[in-house]
Design brief:
Rossmann fold, alpha/beta, 13% strand, five-stranded parallel beta sheet, 2 domains, single chain, 221 residues
Amino acid sequence: MTVRVLIADDQHLVRAGFRMIISARPDLEVVGEAGDGAQAVRLAAQCRPDVVLMDVRMPGMDGIDATRQLTAAPDAPKVIILTTFDLDEPLYAALRAGASGFLLKDVRPAELVAAIRVVARGEALLAPTVTRRLLDRFVATELATRVDERRLDGLTDREREVLALIARGASNAEIAGRLVVTEATVKTHVSAILRKLGVRDRVQAVVLAYDLGLVRPRGSA
């Protein structure tokens, strides 16, 4: 199955470079290019990409606002944020907006291709420890938008336990060791959690776990 990719960046050379890398892979296809966030939103509605490479800083609507609009839509594409600098603030904003991960613009071609394939499969691009670091840093200093806690009612006790471990940065292997089950069993639980909570990947499951108060930032009461 071919993964359809939309590239959103205000620099033509950046878009051209990414297009060349992506188009060289038989399982990837560039279906559109946008020079700003508003154009990315419009093109995504027309082209129906599976993955959007989204620059953080663009004229007019920036990548964060565009990501928020894209991920709020039905059958939303996965969004990978592109950034020049590895800064926590825009990355955190991207997570809250619904992004599945981020890449630096000087990423190696093989890493770019691997990242697109990872998020297209519904997996999170960010390591759990990176997600935890960001949420620990910023959630403690802002009032998180609380969502309906009844969303957890559909989870079994074991699924809640797995979600809490995911939110604390545990990998599938670590969760399996902690609960004395196989990794395959953990993967089954994770899939059920994502489906029941209506989130796209582990990153968004962690964000929701913080919003629901299932886990709290380090150092908080």
